[in-house]
Design goal:
Blueprint (H helix, E strand, L loop, with lengths): L1 H11 L4 H12 L9 H13 L6 H15 L4 E6 L5 E7 L1 H10 L2 E4 L3 E2 L6 E8 L5 E8 L5 H14 L7 E4 L3 H10 L4 E4 L1 H6 L1 H5 L5 H14 L3 H14 L6 H8 L6 H4 L11 H10 L9 H28 L9 H9 L5
Parallel strand pairs: 3-7, 7-8
Antiparallel strand pairs: 1-2, 2-6, 3-5, 4-5, 5-6
Helix pairs in contact: 1-2, 1-3, 6-7, 10-11
């Protein structure tokens, strides 16, 4: 407790973290007399800086959520506090998102790469696809860090909010914390890595090789064009042998986890057309323009509510178009006529 108080005071006074740590070492009489390292101090300060309870914004957030619940009992929120009763992580979902999850929560995209408000906290939306092929919000979190315990807390909140129903599939990046979390919280959910993020790393990981250009072409062909698992397995062995890549650690790791990202291993599972987290990234784009680094937490939540209303309006418009117009058949096939009756215009 004394060390935390000292670090907090020094941080407020603008003292660098390494100097704060050295002062604690000197006070304790050497490195052997303290039970933490400089990295622990950096992690502690990082969390303190990202805590939400600043300038009354945390209290305003709680009031806003309480008002939303008064308007509709199905509004769900949960708040994670630290030992000093400061807000660290937040999750919420309105009644419409919870209802949509019953129909469209079987496949979810989850991505935390979008930083939004002035607290520099990752915005973590759960994104699905509706019957018009539109991206829909199925709940949202703001988290202070992306370690396993935080992501577990967030996923458990979403799980409770959605009546403890696991999604059939979830698409994320390669984050190790995400893998660990899904194993714990959603043990029966099929976990898929974002294919776009993996293929984006190819230049960085392989550009140093002499035969980089043909190597890149063959790898893409192998990943995207393999019809079945056997084709990929044989092709991978040929590819690795041809370019002498047995020592490439990145490729070895990818091969070990091939069932998470190579399309031919995943095509028998329903993914609602998703192989990447671009649904999440597309959702983030909706907030660009009215969310910036100075946006307060309360303003962000209000803008999020506005965005939900806009998306609901687009869904209503698509519902109306599907109910009142018919896509003409190209042939006289009975199955095509069945599609006319059963599917939306977009699908």
């Amino acid at each position: 407790m004394h060390a935390r108080q000292t670090v907090d005071i020094n941080d407020e006074a603008g003292v660098r973290i390494n100097k704060s740590f050295r002062s604690l070492v000197c006070e304790a009489g050497g490195y052997d007399n303290i039970s933490f390292i400089e990295r622990d101090v950096r992690n502690y300060i990082g969390k303190q800086r990202k805590s939400l309870c600043k300038d009354g914004d945390g209290q305003a957030l709680i009031r806003h959520f309480s008002q939303m619940r008064e308007l509709n009992n199905n509004f769900f929120f949960d708040i994670d506090m630290d030992e000093n009763n400061r807000i660290c992580n937040v999750f919420w979902a309105d009644a419409r998102s919870r209802a949509a999850c019953q129909d469209f929560g079987d496949v979810v995209s989850f991505d935390t790469t979008y930083l939004t408000n002035k607290y520099d906290m990752p915005f973590a939306p759960f994104v699905g696809v509706n019957h018009h092929g539109q991206s829909i919000l199925l709940g949202c979190g703001l988290v202070s860090c992306e370690d396993t315990s935080t992501i577990v807390w967030l996923f458990k909140c979403w799980h409770r909010c959605m009546s403890n129903v696991e999604p059939d599939g979830i698409v994320t990046d390669q984050c190790k914390a995400m893998m660990n979390t899904i194993k714990v919280v959603f043990p029966n959910t099929k976990h898929r890595w974002c294919l776009w993020h993996i293929m984006k790393k190819v230049p960085k990981k392989l550009q140093g090789y002499t035969n980089y250009k043909p190597m890149k072409t063959e790898l893409k062909k192998l990943v995207y064009d393999s019809i079945c698992v056997n084709d990929f397995e044989l092709g991978w062995v040929d590819f690795i042998t041809k370019y002498d890549l047995n020592a490439n650690e990145w490729l070895c790791t990818l091969y070990d986890e091939r069932h998470r990202w190579v399309p031919c291993y995943l095509k028998s599972h329903f993914w609602a057309g998703m192989s990447t987290t671009q649904r999440s990234e597309g959702m983030n784009a909706f907030f660009d323009g009215f969310i910036n680094s100075s946006t307060t937490l309360q303003k962000f939540i209000a803008q999020y509510d506005n965005e939900l209303r806009q998306k609901a309006k687009k869904e209503f418009e698509a519902d109306f178009a599907s109910a009142n117009t018919t896509v003409a058949c190209g042939f006289q096939s009975p199955i095509e006529r069945q599609f006319q009756l059963e599917y939306t215009r977009q699908i």
